[in-house]
Amino acid sequence: MNWLGALLVAVALVALAVGVGVAGRALGGRVRHVRRERGRETVAGPRAGASAATADVLGISHRELGRRATLVQLSTEFCSRCPGAARQLASIADEYDGVRHVEVDITNRADLADRFRVLQTPTTLILGADGTSAARIGGVPRGHEVRDLLDRLTRSHRVTR
Fold it and tell me: Is the whole-model pTM more than 0.85?
């Protein structure tokens, strides 16, 4: 291969890497709604979600659940973006009456990571009042999208303090 061909290949690889990075950034942190089919929840899109008793599978007691909704953050101890996401989700939960934030460490829980198809942390599950999944977010959540979903899910608006 001559130097011109090598240069074209290198430029093409850089362009491909930039394109993949931009696409990943655009898709990360978006709310993906969960639909129910025959007693099983599936994420709208290609990946399946968890079975109907999401809170039970995660080991979250009903005392820990919010009255209206729960923001469940799946994190690992090595996740650099998880502490910031936890602060953001806790702040959002405080803006709503009956909404709580719960963090679940899946560092040593490969069964949960597999069951919920966690490919990145943080992954956030938004549970309804009954403890079943309403949506999921891969990556750091986009605050305005979480708030819009909570407005619809709780049928109320943020509490101003």
Answer: no
